[in-house]
Amino acid sequence: MSPLLLLVLGLLLPLLLLVLRGRTRREDEPPLIKGWIPFIGKALEFGKDAHKFLKEHKRKFGDVFTVQIAGKYMTFIMDPLLYPNIIKQGRQLDFHEFSNRVASFAFGYPPVTSKFPGLKEQITRGFILLQGDNLTPLTESMMGNLMLVFRQDYLDQESSWKTAYMYKLCNSIMFEATFLTMYGKPPSASRHSGMSVLETDFIKFDKMFPLLVAQIPIWLLGRTRAIRERLINYFLPHQMSCWSHSSEFIRTRFEMFEQYDTLRDFDKAAHHFAILWASLGNTVPAIFWVTYYLVSHPEALQFVRRELEDVLRLSGVEFSRDKDVMLTPAHLEKLLYMESAIEESLRLCSASMNIRVAQEDFSLRLDAERSAAVRKGDIIALYPQAMHLDPEIYEDPQTFRFDRYVQNGQKKTNFYKRGQKLKHYLMPFGSGASKCPGRFFAINEIKQFLSVILLYLDLELEEGQSKATLDLSRAGLGVMLPAEDVRFRYRLRPV
Ligand code: HEM
């Protein structure tokens, strides 16, 4: 059974017994689509391929429809011109109720409720430490750690061609560089021992993540509980307090959790582990896809590499085999075509469902003419992947065009639906209240990773492989992984 299907079923487990109970419909409610058995019928269809399911229902029922899935009413808004009205409804449509429930279940900490006064607000306030002026030290630290790992593991080799798996390589470099940047270094070494064990456990946990989001009890998932416990135990406060050079973001969270006697050490560690997942779970697949697309489009790769070399030359930045390159946020900002290639990969490979839960019965204003009745507890869902692959907005939507987001030497932001300019045309990071607080850092670190491999390595795909395809089990949850890893060759460039 696909994890997305389990997600749909599991999310709503408590309502299982109520599924056959209908409700009296009001005239202004959107068209309601029920399965022959409301519980299984629609959930099965939806779980198999959400994109196809939603496209077909949009064709039959229009841009706004409600699906009764597993006894719960989910209203899908399919017209991206209506998105702004939904996104600004922060008060009546809440995101955190849902995310808090799902995250505490998946990562194993107690839900952030009034039992911990002020904790929710402090956590949210802390997200600022991933943005604005705080982005500079974070990005600089990432650059240093990326070079440290890359140099020791890849640069200190002879320059013959070598074969590797692409996802595996992206993951191993980013896992350690991210860990060092976020949580810091051990007392008397520049790298932590046991990283590869931690990384292996992380990959195993990550595979089960969609099932945990679906609220499938962890005891049903084989060794996942033991693996999660090992991962969490890595972040126990007595261990973390020995590490130096951690990010301001993690240091602040560490001190914040220490104020709560009601949180056990294990709970605090589980919160830290959740951030490890947040900072890697989408970033690594995003890095994989942009690397894959560039390597499989050599002319795009050459263009992006040339742009990078020009930016470095004009800024007087030197690098060589023996000298680490240092890209600051100011350099990264100038990489217009690289950013476009990253956004194009996110357009093709991200599928983050935006979910809001109605806090009361109310009439949701859709546009100047229309509104839709929603009831307390109903889910309102945006599924931006449908917009990302809409041929009216993006010509030839299945094709990777590295320069799709550049126009006349500037960032292109004008995309249209029915002749109207879209406010939201690319949404890999969610929207409004739930928008990813790490998005600026994510784009910076993806650029840094690409810069390092493009500057120091020649890269080629191994022949005789079919095209990489998406593993749909994560559809709805973020950037999708490749169904299978890709083999490629690399060698050191003469720099
Ligand atoms: C390409 C990389 C990334 C993508 C596509 C991404 C996407 C997202 C999305 C879609 C959400 C909202 C979840 C939802 O609506 O259900 C989210 C939340 C979050 N992300 Fe990211 N993210 C990325 C990288 C990062 C990084 C690098 C960090 C941190 C260092 C981070 C930290 C967070 C946190 C803490 C939240 C939860 C926010 C909250 O509870 O309000 N993300 N991310």
TrEMBL record:
Binding site for heme: C436
Any GO BP: bile acid biosynthetic process
Highest taxon listed in the record's lineage: Eukaryota
Keyword Membrane assigned: yes
Pathway, per record: Lipid metabolism; bile acid biosynthesis
GO molecular function, one term: heme binding
GO cellular component entries: endoplasmic reticulum membrane
Signal peptide (from-to): 1-26
Protein name stated in the entry: Cytochrome P450, family 7, subfamily B, polypeptide 1
Cofactors that this protein relies on: heme
Localisation per UniProt entry: Endoplasmic reticulum membrane
Native organism taxonomy: Eukaryota, Metazoa, Chordata, Craniata, Vertebrata
UniProt keyword NADP present: no
Annotated residues for binding of substrate: N282
Source organism of the structure: Astatotilapia calliptera (Eastern happy)
Pfam families named among the record's database cross-references: p450
Family from the record: Belongs to the cytochrome P450 family.
InterPro entries: CYP450_sterol_14alpha_dmase, Cyt_P450, Cyt_P450_CYP7A1-type, Cyt_P450_E_grp-IV, Cyt_P450_sf
Predominant location: endoplasmic reticulum
Keywords assigned: Endoplasmic reticulum, Heme, Iron, Lipid metabolism, Membrane, Metal-binding, Oxidoreductase, Signal, Steroid metabolism
